[in-house]
């Protein structure tokens, strides 16, 4: 029912020379058993899409909520789509922190992305202080309520649970903690959109996913794949994570 998805978020990394990593990935996974997505910087979307063919999907890392207009430096969902993207990451904690994006901003961007025919990957997750205060579930539930627009096509929505304290730190929640948050996300979606629609939304885990921990994380119920930062920059590491997802329980 849900096609597994492994997404690489290159963040502000990557020049033309980095496309060699994509060539190596395509050579290793010409017809992957799961969906493989790379979200490079916007400057590389067009070249990456041309290079990756059908083996790898390409996504943006953010979009503006408006379709066009006087917004110097911004990119619309339609522009991403026009450049060859099929997905867009929205509400990443780095954008929520660096650019003060609110749940309402993320919700508007997600609606705009879906209007443009893109799959919206909406990122959620508590800070370390919020987890220590016992508020992780409440924070994530609030972000699901605030960041997911009405009337979604469940096939065009992906939620990525990325605890802020796990990003780039080498630390991850326990498997039980990941399972608890993913079950909560599924339940929040079901309460709002119905069980059938909720069952079609893919839920990713992100935050220090590496070749060494990917298989264990992919075996957690309601984990449909991963959003990978640092380990997506090197073909060998990302390839091992793809292989782990291909071998994960259905
Ligand atoms: P790391 O995999 O480097 O921890 O980054 C996770 C992330 O932020 C993906 O969006």
Task: Describe the SSE topology.
Elements: E1 5-9, H1 19-28, E2 35-39, H2 45-52, E3 57-60, H3 77-83, E4 87-90, H4 93-98, H5 103-115, E5 119-124, H6 128-132, H7 136-147, E6 157-161, H8 175-193, H9 195-198, E7 202-206, H10 214-218, E8 225-228, H11 235-246
Parallel strand pairs: 1-2, 1-8, 2-3, 3-4, 4-5, 5-6, 6-7, 7-8
The structure holds 1,3-dihydroxyacetonephosphate.
Residues 9, 92, 162, 167-168, 206-209, 227-231 line the site of 1,3-dihydroxyacetonephosphate (13P).
Which key terms come to mind for this protein?
8 strands, 250 residues, alpha/beta, binds 1,3-dihydroxyacetonephosphate, 8-stranded parallel β-barrel, TIM Barrel
CATH class: Alpha Beta
Count structural domains: 1
| Estimated structural class | alpha/beta
CATH superfamily, by name, is Aldolase class I
Please give the number of β-strands. Answer: 8
Low-confidence stretches: none
| Small molecules held by this entry | 1,3-dihydroxyacetonephosphate
Radius of gyration: 17 Å
- Main pleated sheet: 8 strands, parallel, barrel
End-to-end separation in angstroms reads 10 Å
Helical content (DSSP H or I, runs of 4+): 40-55%
Overall body shape: globular
Bin the strand percentage. Answer: 15-25%
Task: Provide the residue-averaged pLDDT.
Answer: 97
Name the CATH architecture.
Alpha-Beta Barrel
């Amino acid at each position: 029912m849900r096609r597994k998805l492994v997404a690489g978020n290159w963040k502000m990394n990557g020049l033309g020379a980095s496309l060699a990593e994509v060539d190596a990935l395509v050579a290793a996974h010409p017809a992957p058993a799961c969906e493989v997505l790379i979200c490079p910087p916007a400057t590389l979307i067009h070249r990456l899409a041309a290079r990756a063919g059908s083996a790898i999907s390409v996504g943006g890392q953010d979009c503006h909520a408006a379709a066009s207009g006087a917004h110097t430096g911004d990119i619309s969902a339609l522009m991403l789509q026009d450049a060859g993207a099929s997905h867009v990451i929205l509400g990443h904690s780095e954008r929520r922190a660096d650019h003060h994006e609110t749940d309402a901003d993320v919700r508007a961007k997600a609606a705009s992305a879906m209007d443009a025919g893109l799959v919206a990957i909406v990122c959620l997750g508590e800070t370390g202080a919020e987890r220590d205060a016992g508020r992780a579930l409440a924070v994530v539930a609030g972000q699901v309520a605030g960041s997911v627009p009405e009337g979604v096509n469940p096939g065009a929505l992906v939620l990525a649970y990325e605890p802020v304290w796990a990003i780039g730190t080498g630390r991850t929640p326990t498997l039980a903690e990941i399972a608890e948050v993913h079950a909560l996300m599924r339940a929040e979606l079901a309460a709002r959109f119905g069980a059938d629609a909720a069952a079609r939304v893919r839920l990713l885990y992100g935050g220090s996913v590496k070749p060494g921990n990917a298989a264990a994380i992919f075996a957690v119920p309601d984990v449909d794949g991963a959003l990978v930062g640092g380990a997506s920059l090197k073909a060998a590491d990302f390839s091992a994570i793809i292989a782990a997802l291909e071998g994960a329980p259905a």
